[in-house]
Write a structure and sequence with these properties.
This protein is of the alpha/beta class. It has one domain (2-82): STAS domain (Transcription Regulator spoIIAA, 2-Layer Sandwich). The chain has helices spanning 25-33, 53-64, 74-82, and strands at 2-8, 12-20, 41-51, 68-70. Strand 2, helix 1 (25-33) and strand 3 form a beta-alpha-beta unit.
């Protein structure tokens, strides 16, 4: 089960904890769509325990849109890299 908490201090951070399953991706996309343009957006991922391939694809697309993956677990970072996605350096 995925828990999502929205934190805002001028920028927006979604704190994620638990598992990110395929059925969670549309909800994360919906939440991103509600945010105003021009804000920095990040996912705090230090408490993420498991992801599926659809979630990895989603997270890679997020990075391509300059959404930060903060405290991304090493196995997720390695999976994104192994799938051939390139991370934009910030």
């Amino acid at each position: 089960m995925l828990m999502i908490q929205r934190l805002a201090d001028g920028n927006v951070c979604f704190s994620l904890s638990g598992r990110i399953e395929a059925e969670d991706v549309p909800e994360l996309e919906r939440l991103l769509g509600l945010e105003a343009g021009g804000q920095e957006v990040a996912f705090e991922m230090g408490e993420v325990t498991l992801v599926c391939r659809e979630a990895v694809n989603f997270l890679a697309r997020c990075e391509a849109k300059n959404i930060k993956l903060e405290n991304c677990p090493a196995y997720i970072r390695e999976w994104i890299d192994a799938e051939g996605y390139t991370r934009q350096e910030r």
